[in-house]
Design a protein that fits this description.
Two copies of one chain form a homodimer. Chain A is α/β, with parallel strands linked by helices. Helix content of chain A is 36%, strand content 18%. Chain A has two domains: 4-117 and 210-230, Peroxisomal Thiolase, Chain A, domain 1, CATH 3.40.47.10; 119-200 and 233-382, 3-Layer(aba) Sandwich (Peroxisomal Thiolase, Chain A, domain 1), CATH 3.40.47. Chain A has helices at 22-37, 52-56, 61-68, 85-99, 119-125, 141-156, 164-174, 188-192, 221-227, 256-269, 286-295, 304-309, 326-329, 337-349; strands spanning 4-11, 44-48, 75-80, 104-111, 196-198, 201-202, 212-220, 232-241, 278-280, 363-370, 375-382. A nine-stranded mixed sheet of chain A has the order 3-2-4-7-1-8-11-10-9, sandwiched between helices. A two-stranded antiparallel ribbon of chain A has the order 5-6. Chains A and B meet through helix 2, helix 3, strand 3, helix 4 and strand 8 of A and helix 2, helix 3, strand 3, helix 4 and strand 8 of B.
Chain lengths: 384, 384
């Protein structure tokens, strides 16, 4: 258990924000979080962002975002760990508050991709992979997902259709989330007919990029109790890594960093997988959802896909996932995604998830992955 | 005073490392630091890097560098705050160790620019400025330096030649540092004849980009005492920010973030400017050196240049700066620079600075700036 609690959350809709700049997006999420926490007293800002330099020609987002949010002068930096940037930024805020050197920290994940969607965004996202040994040969994130999915199908004797349940569940939940990018329900027969992106990864196996920002404010727990009616405790926090390149791994079908960070976070929180009421996992690809469930102890090796097939990941199932739509339907604004996950778990535990609410949620887990799972950040949140 | 001490340092020569990849550069510095600390027991890696995504098509350097350094699996992220990335990464390591959640942290600053020197590097470095309001109009870092220098000359009635002392001192020290990029001594008449980069900034007002990596290992002080003969204590640590754009500041000739972070670090360390035995400042431009000295309390407003003219910044002067050559002569591998500064101060305090040694150095300060000074990270180190 850490001494850190969440006192405010905020988020924008994920969509094509053609008329909103990177700094404005960040500000909208920050404004909502400051309102939610009823404070403007922030000592440090941690910005999770992956692609500002590549797609908006803007690095140095710590100082920029802090200034634009009316926090000129405050400590502020940007954290980058590919699409795990948001989760990693939240982890830094936890460390900062836990150190005692920072009293209240604000985390904002922000990403802006729409204007550069297509080849520029695809190239920029590929910087998550190993540039010298993978990207140089033309590998993209979709290609990486295809390699993993193909291998998974081969090893475990499953078919493309066995992955459908992840996307169907994500869209069923996203349809209920007013901030989701895609609010359409998805039928299994539509999934089966989806155009291929990188065979066997189809359009509906893969989470869409988008623009969005999410923000969270944390402070020490005893202080949080005085500030808000429902502080959400950070019970566990861990970050682990693995090789960027798939070929460097002894076992490509095992997300070692996901396992390691989940175990560490669970030990810290003093819980087991069966104690988790909901799990915001990193469903960048349907196969990543399956592999995450296996690595984190929610399914046996090679059986993660069964949870989706058997309806165990629904809001009333054994382990609800992607409860606001996940990366697949809420949308995947790369460096912001990990902060969306934290916001969503916090809303669930506060009982403020609206139509997406998981009944009686007390312990929630969020896991944000970077690239092929080379970075894995796991957080366990709880309310008493 | 923090509870954090440095137990190992390492660095590569700054130069055009045509035959060395980004990950190799990082590894060489890490290897030296691990050797220096006599340990391989590292719990977290903080990578300071500004331009990996833009110039090497490689983000996600936390996981990549950790794996390549033989630390596969360990917690690892990248920190970016423009050319203050290195100092900001060191600050995160201090927070992590101070939190108690991380026992031993390794910081590595690494940058690789040579293959893309010229327009690509200039454009990439400009991401430190405000993309929507400065860079879009063609402003580069050199142009920003020129605006500041011109204004400084106008306000304080000084001439271009009054800045020469900063570069002459930097080159005099760099000539004694085997790892410096430029080891030539610089004569004032050569300074005066230098070609213009962005008038009035000449080639010798401006620090050169280069490739390099530097690494530092920190742990809790009581543990450090058991591990190495000369732990260097982190007495003060602070990071502050300002607007990215110069036009947003009430006073462009005052580095508010530099002042704020220096004051906070000095209060934490319980010292005043007169207690500082040496100051590794951010001499990206001669005018930035002058402004830093003023903001940090070593000179009155408008008088920083006098310290250089009067020889007070030499190794035997009142406040020695750029003791290993500074950004100007050691070289400025953007995101690595802040870690070089920490390494250099630590070597000075350990009495291991060789020909660059400042006599009887007990308290040293390092200040790393991002862009126009929008990020300022100040660390005060000391030995008893």
């Amino acid at each position: 258990m850490t001494n850190v609690s969440i006192i405010g959350v905020g988020q924008t809709k994920v969509k094509e924000h053609w008329d909103t700049s990177l700094r404005h997006l960040a500000w909208y999420a920050i404004e909502a979080a400051l309102d939610d926490a009823h404070t403007t007293d922030i000592d440090a800002v941690f910005v999770g962002n992956m692609l500002g330099g590549e797609l908006s020609k803007q690095n140095h987002l710590g100082a920029l975002v802090a200034d634009f949010a009316g926090l000129r002068g405050v400590e502020a930096i940007r954290i980058e760990a590919a699409d795990a940037s948001g989760g990693a930024a939240f982890r830094q805020a936890v460390l900062a508050v836990e150190s005692g050197l920072v009293q209240t920290a604000l985390v904002v994940g922000v990403e802006k991709m729409t204007e550069e969607m297509g080849a520029p965004a695809t190239a920029a996202l590929s910087t998550a992979l190993d540039a010298d040994y993978e990207t140089i040969h033309g590998l993209t994130l979709a290609g990486m997902g295809a390699l993993l999915m193909r291998r998974y199908m081969h090893e475990y004797g499953v078919d493309v259709s066995d992955f459908a349940g992840f996307s169907v569940n994500a869209h069923a939940n996203g349809a209920l989330n007013p901030l989701a990018m895609y609010r359409n329900r998805l039928k299994p027969e539509r999934f089966a007919a989806a155009p291929q992106v990188a065979e066997p990864v189809s359009l509906f196996d893969m989470a869409p990029g988008g623009d969005g920002a999410a923000a969270v404010i944390v402070t020490r727990h005893e202080r949080a109790l005085d500030m808000v009616p429902q502080p959400v405790r950070v019970a566990g926090s861990a970050l682990a890594t693995d090789t960027l390149a798939l070929h460097d791994r002894k076992d490509v079908l095992w997300l070692a960093a996901a396992e390691r960070s989940a175990k560490q976070a669970m030990i810290q929180a003093g819980i087991s997988p069966e104690d988790v009421d909901l799990f915001e996992l990193h469903d960048s690809f349907t196969v990543m959802a399956a592999l995450s469930l296996e690595a984190c102890g929610f399914a046996a090796r090679g059986e993660g896909w069964r949870l989706a097939r058997d309806g165990e990941i629904g809001r009333n199932g054994r382990i609800p996932v992607s409860t606001f739509g996940g990366l697949k339907a809420r949308g995947n604004p790369a460096g912001a995604t990990g902060v969306y996950q934290i916001v969503e778990v916090a809303l669930q535990l506060r009982g403020q998830a609206g139509d997406c609410q998981v009944p009686d949620a007390r312990i929630g887990m969020a896991q944000n992955l970077g690239g092929s799972g080379a970075t894995a950040v796991t957080h366990i949140l709880r309310v008493d």
